[in-house]
């Protein structure tokens, strides 16, 4: 069987397991709908799925690195929530929306997707455009816009690509 089809089958099974975990219903009609939805999502998004050649190999080192990345990202999301809450609750509401253009030397498509989503997950920032090496980010304040260009995940992703 072709690697591409194995990839599709694997993603379909992961989506189906996620469906079952979220629904919590093990009756056959619910399971049939979940499986059909999983197949539907994979079929209509098959051109968007990152192939095995585009992502880093699954090794213990990469898995540990990814866990560390997500733990630091959770910390940043937690801190950004308080910063945005402070801005919104401040009597003068010091919001100065701005767009920050930055060039990021990351080669891997998976790493660029991870960076774009990480920026968007942090409150107060939003990835508007992610092109080959150029990112356009909307920031809630000037300070957060300047800080995004030196954000630690960018250097961590570059470091991971070198290893």
Point out poorly predicted stretches: none
Strands, count? 3
- Give the structural class: mainly alpha
Number of helices: 6
Helix and strand run? HHHEHEEHH
Query: What strand order characterises the main sheet?
Result: 1-3-2
- In the residues, how many domains can be counted? 2
Mean of residue pLDDT values = 86
Q: First CA to last CA: what distance?
A: 31 Å
Q: Calculate Rg over CA atoms.
A: 19 Å
Strand count, sense and barrel status of the largest sheet are:
3 strands, antiparallel
Q: What is the share of helical residues?
A: 55-70%
Q: How would you describe the shape?
A: globular
What percentage of the residues does DSSP assign to strands (E)? 5-15%
How would you characterize this protein structure?
It is a single chain. By secondary structure, this protein is mainly alpha-helical. The chain has helices at about 5-25, 30-45, 60-90, 110-120, 140-150, 150-160; strands at about 100-105, 125-130, 135-140. The chain folds into two domains: about 5-45; about 60-160. The longest helix is centred in the middle third of the chain and has 30 residues, at about 60-90. It is globular. The relative contact order is 0.11.
């Amino acid at each position: 069987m072709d690697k591409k089809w194995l990839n599709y089958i694997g993603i379909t099974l992961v989506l189906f397991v996620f469906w079952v975990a979220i629904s919590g219903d093990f009756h056959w009609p619910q399971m049939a709908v979940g499986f059909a939805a999983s197949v539907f999502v994979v079929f209509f998004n098959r051109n968007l799925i990152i192939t095995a050649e585009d992502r880093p190999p699954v090794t213990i080192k990469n898995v540990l690195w990814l866990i560390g990345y997500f733990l630091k990202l959770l910390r940043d999301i937690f801190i950004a929530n308080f910063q945005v809450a402070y801005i919104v609750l401040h009597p003068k509401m010091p919001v100065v929306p701005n767009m920050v253009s930055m060039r990021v030397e990351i080669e891997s498509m998976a790493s660029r997707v991870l960076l774009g989503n990480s920026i968007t997950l942090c409150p107060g920032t939003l990835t508007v455009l992610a092109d080959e090496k150029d990112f356009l980010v909307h920031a809630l304040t000037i300070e957060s816009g300047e800080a995004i260009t030196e954000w630690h995940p960018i250097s961590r992703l570059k470091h991971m690509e070198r290893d």
